[in-house]
Model the fold of this input.
Amino acid sequence: MIRTKFSDLLGIEHPIALGGMGGGFTRPGMVAAVSEAGGFGALSCNGLSPDEIHDAAAKMRSHTEKPYALNFLLFLTDDECFTAALKEKPAAIALAWPRPEQDLKSFIDRSHEAGCKVTLMAGTVPAPERGVEAGADVIIAQGTEGGGHVGWMASMVLTPMIVDAVSPVPVLSAGGIADGRGLAAALALGADGALLGTRFIASDESPIHENFKQAIVDSDGHDTVLTEITDLAAGVVWPGAMSRVKRNRLVERWIGREWDLRRDQAQAFARIQAARKEGDVEETPLSYGQDAGLIHDILPAGEIVRRIAEEAETILTKKISSLVA
Ligand SMILES: Cc1cc2nc3c(=O)[nH]c(=O)nc-3n(C[C@H](O)[C@H](O)[C@H](O)COP(=O)(O)O)c2cc1C
Done:
């Protein structure tokens, strides 16, 4: 068993976390499956009402007694929803993307008062320093390889930089990790575990259309792009990030014509919503990371956790140590 500061802090078996993915990419069954397998599940609360947060927490509790997190994109967070989440007393509140002027400390203090640990995602080095000063318990070093909204720095560089900057606060490496090799590498870089999004999107419990899961399996990892097109189409201004998505027909249509998309936003968004329902992988924004190239099957979420833990353990105990003369 791999024990780290992160697994000890949260009282979990494996230092493997599910990213709390917004836009309907996480559901209670998926989160509970990750936690029940000994990982650390996280549910995105963005887009949920206070009642829906309560219902989701009750569903997770009906599946598992193990720890999980509730995730918030801070720049979109509504106070009523945050208060509702704290009432559920999750093991952790997972925060990402605060606006520069937001009072991060007050979110962290309120979480601590409710008995929750706090994780904060960061894609640069100054960002986690702000989080640690405000009292964050865990920093997620999120590299540009990852799916969804990311920064510019690769995990290989960013993870040890953040580890050095925030030590002794535990760090999880995120972005581009889909198997035990990635977890072992993250630990070698000084992280205390890994956080994964894309790998879990291609899971049985993932709530998205089967065609989208299959698109990840079919991807060779070279078909993503960092773009603002998908946010422009949704009418959302993201503070300091682009989104890594599949470079599909939708994205190709608007590249270099973002100004045009601003004008036609309502029409483009309506078309996307219809395409999403139909599972049209060419006309829907499909957020996934470069690690799609490492994903060759759709598996139960718990199985993913167990396989990654087992593979990393074998690498660390047998492969790596045998290299040292
Ligand atoms: C579809 C999608 C939605 C995401 N939404 C969120 C979110 O709401 N909050 C968050 O903290 N991270 C979010 N992320 C980022 C993940 O938490 C994680 O950092 C990323 O998926 C890691 O890279 P990987 O996809 O290569 O595993 C999202 C990622 C994806 C793919």
